[in-house]
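Researcher: Go.
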Amino acid sequence: MILLADSGGRAPLYQGFPLYQLKITLGDCHPVIWRRVVVRANMKLNRFHNVIQTVMGWTNSHLHQFIADNVYYGVPDCKYDDEDFKEQNEKNHTVAELAPKVNARFIYEYDFGDCWEHAVLLEKILPSDVAFKHPVCLAGANACPPEDCGGSSGYAEFVAAMADPQHPEHETMREWIGGGWDATAFSVEAANRGLRRISA
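Model: Structure:
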């Protein structure tokens, strides 16, 4: 797929639905864990959730939500009734609604226990492309943390233990993760194989 030139600051709706180039950065992790993806602007948030899960390397094992301008989007819980908190149904909203122009940002939070916050930045708006069939990962760096590792602080402790055979938790962590761990591992090709299961 060849991406066309940047079309400017706002989505040219008269040309059909444009493509969005977005950078997803996981907060409070060192080295920085990030991915760059292209999706269609009208992609619903529930499907963009699947894109993030795929390119980051999460296993979709926990709850999630999107946050933009103090508005929350997710999967509404009919058992939860609070007049002061109204969560929007993510199936009814698109990526373009949360990021209407270049440099707009919003948050994707995953796992309310470990509190993984991903900053999503709209880098470019690209022209519509009829040949665009699936979301695409353009680039990225560093491995996704293991699920249930205790958030950013727990992940830092995990990486330190895995990197040092003399660390008192090294063998325990190796057993927990099932072998070795490369904190720098990331494959664009593998991410795109997963994205081919998601239609644009």
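Model: The first helix runs from residue 45 to 56.
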